[in-house]
Amino acid sequence: MADPNLKRRDYRVSGPENKRAQEKGLAEADWYTCPIPRERLKELMKRKDKPAIRDTFIWFGALFVMGIVAYYCWGSWWAIPAFALYGILYATPGDSRWHECGHGTAFKTPWMNEVLYQIASFMVLRSATPMRWSHTRHHTDTIIVGRDPEIVMERPPIWKIIFMQIFHLYGGPREFYKFFLHCFGKLDKEEYTYIPPSEHSKTFLEARIYLLIYAAIFVWCLQMGSLLPAMFVGLPSFYGMAFVLLFGMTQHLGLHEDVLDHRLNTRTIYMNPILRFLYWNMNYHVEHHMFPMVPYHALADLHEEIKGDCPPASRSFGSALKDVIVALVKQGKDPAFTIDRPLPGTARSYKFGPEEAVLESDRVAN
């Protein structure tokens, strides 16, 4: 467990670390990018409708089938595994589809991205417009303390929050608080720092629609005298979130803060086809952060293009998760602990800050 006497940095984007990051030249800075031929990059950036349409039909088809199974299992012990699988299919792809459609790269047709983005945002209990701007900041200032509003866990880690998030019991209520705040035409203090005024009215409208849907589900449950309607819409945003948490933990945790090189603060992981489908290839996370306009279906090819300039990918999801947990335990005693990963001999040096790279790859310790 984290030592409560250890000094903590202020991770709020409305706190003093924001100004400090700007003074250090870390805010909205120039990031390192791996060399790749321009024509090849343009080819990889081409958007297509077909892969995302196919995957969306598979996702909703699987969710529909699993929903029928869960419905007929209701009232028996078989409902527990049935709804567990339904929840995973509801929330995990919901999170990855929210993410990719928020970038506008999943489909070639813009309205398709927007429709699925709005649906997925609701499914994973996120305000669509605020999270679009939050995620824009996350990409601009990735894991820069005081700038990035999407840092999963601070140093030293607060394990209580991690365990609560298995069922979204920390973040979920906070999102509902924001929904009610938005419903009455207000934002929280941090949201004012990254949501432009022109987007405020859209934020408030989305919150009101969300709350109306949840109110309708609540009334339906009361009329039936059963939680069953909420087990299909609403509650999966809580009981189905375990993989969302675990995937999110492996993206950046244990790696460097306050650097300008995604090879230092982001992790690529090799995953099996099922996990890759659920995650929509976001396991290629270094690639995604370095070239966010490359669609999910081209990330594996992008990985092959730049892997000679990157640290080796984690061998598996389990291996990456183990590294994260070990790092979090060590950060509980020493918040400065960071996983340093050696680069291959073909790679260019890491870029740690606004100046030139500090260390050569052969000087980076395991």
TrEMBL record:
UniProt-recorded name of the protein: Fatty acid desaturase
Keyword Lyase: no
Domain of life, per lineage: Bacteria
Region named Disordered: 1-21
Species whose genome carries this gene: Paenibacillus aceris
CDD domains cross-referenced by the UniProt entry: Rhizopine-oxygenase-like
Domain Fatty acid desaturase: 76-315
Keywords of the record: Membrane, Transmembrane, Transmembrane helix
Tagged with keyword Transmembrane helix: yes
Transmembrane feature ranges: 57-80, 209-232, 238-255
Chain segments annotated as coiled-coil in the UniProt record: none
Pfam families for this protein: FA_desaturase
